[in-house]
Amino acid sequence: MMKATPAARATLALRVFGATMIVIGLAGYLLPAATHWTALIPAIIGAIALAASLPRGSGIAQTVVAAVLAGITLFGTASALPLLPALLADSGAVADPAAVGARAAAAIAALLLLVSLVLIRPWQR
């Protein structure tokens, strides 16, 4: 069995991130009773991540796109992380539990993508 290269591992991490974001976006839009179209933003980011993971260009370009997408996701969702303990303790303590849960899940997915990119080091051969 052939050893996977760092670039291939980074591509896999980007694909997993994209699929996760699509699931988060669709769940955030379809599960609660009243939703706004902005609940689909994680799904849009996930679709961009999956498109960026297609085999073309260099592994470095994919790494840059992955880092930018993770940064954008964190910028938009990190404010939900301090609310996560209150949500887990008592969902009534949070104004919109579904939105906080979706935003926190997206922030955690973005953090995991960034950590995996650092551990994989796709910029090295």
What does this structure look like?
The protein is mainly α and 125 residues long. The protein has one domain (6-30, 39-120). It has 5 helices and no strands. Helix 1 (6-30) runs antiparallel to helix 2 and helix 2 packs antiparallel against helix 3.
Q: Average pLDDT across residues?
A: 86
Q: Determine the N-to-C terminus distance.
A: 19 Å
In terms of structural class, how would the helical and strand content be classed? mainly alpha
Low-confidence stretches: none
Number of strands: 0
Instruction: Provide the succession of SSEs.
Output: HHHHH
From the alpha-carbon coordinates, what is the Rg to the nearest angstrom? Answer: 16 Å
Question: Please, how many helices?
Answer: 5
Helix content: 55-70%
Overall number of domains: 1
Determine the strand fraction and express it as a percent band.
under 5%
Coarse morphology: elongated
Main beta sheet strand tally, sense and closure:
none
Short description:
The protein is an all-alpha fold and 125 residues long. Helix content is 69%, strand content 0%. The chain contains five helices and no strands.
Task: Give the topology.
Blueprint lengths: L5 H25 L10 H12 L6 H19 L6 H6 L7 H24 L5
Helix pairs in contact: 1-2, 1-3, 1-5, 2-3, 3-5
